[in-house]
Amino acid sequence: MKYKTWLDKWLENCVKPFVKERTYCKYQMIVLRHISPALGEYELEDLTAIVLQEFVSGLLGTLSPCTVNGIITPLKASLKQAVQMGVAKAQYADGILRPKQKERKVACFTVDEQRRIEEYVKSGKTQWLGILVCLYSGLRIGELMALTSDDVDLHTMQITVNKSCYDSWENGQYIKRIASPKTASSKRIIPIPRSLLPYLKRLKKECHSEYLICNGSKDISVRAYQRSFELILKHLGIAHKGFHSLRHTFATRALECGMDVKTLSEILGHKSVNITLNRYAHSLDEHKVAMMNKLGKMLQ
User: Fold this and answer.
1) Which DSSP letter does residue 42 get?
2) CB-based contacts of 53: which residues, under 8 Å, 6+ apart?
3) Distance between CA 100 and CA 92 in Å, rounded?
4) From CA 230, how far away is CA 104, in angstroms rounded?
5) What is the pLDDT of residue 61?
6) Strand partners, 178
């Protein structure tokens, strides 16, 4: 049996019934983009340890270790399942050497870059104000794009995060799908800064869709919104950073303003304070110095 034929059967019968739709779509995209084009024409019994390792090594030339490890996971799972179901006699995926992942440095925008982004989106398309919302709430892009008008209460000045969304590739285009938040702790209520109220009012007023971030009455896919952000950075001459950098920027500015880590952790929806501490330790260094100097003023 050709590997691409088995991949289709594996996704449909061994993955789809047992995982969340979001995970299924993720595996489906990995198979479509990376595994099937390179290995799909092989017969299952021809996928030797050398073939598999050469495939992985080739990926490292263009993709990050993190991305490559994400591709290896369904690759190994599908081949193991083939043996368990008697479709293949043996599999050699256990011999694949996974690339080592380095701790990724948190990327955030400088104060000047943030100011330029804010000025640009405030005078641009209404849907771009979602970028401003992320800068002052720490929302993930999936959480932002899943917000409805009812999730934003301007009277109590609170944003309720109770769902997320992702893109599913269907019929040659990205379709937005609603899902549960990333973790249980991701369900949270975020206070709205007063300075953000006028922009949220504008979003709600001009929202003619089920979701707050829209183009008139049309929904916007997550990928399309990410692409808009990339183009904004390019227009402003700011070095490319992923949309998630807005969340990192919020966290960094919050610490710089003196927000305590426990409060920040709850606003970000982290499982524990330790995650916040580990991720933003570098941002705390200057804060530590400032606090020590403040304490030192007591010395006579």
Assistant:
1) S
2) 95, 96, 97
3) 20
4) 20
5) 82
6) 165
- Name residue 225's amino acid: Y
Q: Determine the Cα–Cα distance for residues 201 and 222; give it in Å rounded to an integer.
A: 22
Rounded CA gap, 24 and 253, in Å?
36
Beta-bridge mates of residue 127: none
Q: What angle do CA 202, 208, 211 make, to 5 degrees?
A: 85
DSSP-derived secondary structure letter, 150: G
Residues in the chain predicted with pLDDT less than 70, given as ranges, are 102-105, 300
- The torsion region of residue 100 among left (phi > 0), alpha (psi -120 to 50) and beta comes to beta
Token pair for residue 124?
């641009």
Name residue 208's amino acid.
H
**What pTM was estimated for this model as a whole?**
0.75
Neighbours of 44 (CB within 10 A): 19
CATH numbers and ranges of domains, the chain? 3-95 (1.10.150.130), 111-287 (1.10.443.10)
Query: How far apart are the C-alpha atoms of 216 and 3, rounded to whole Å?
Result: 44
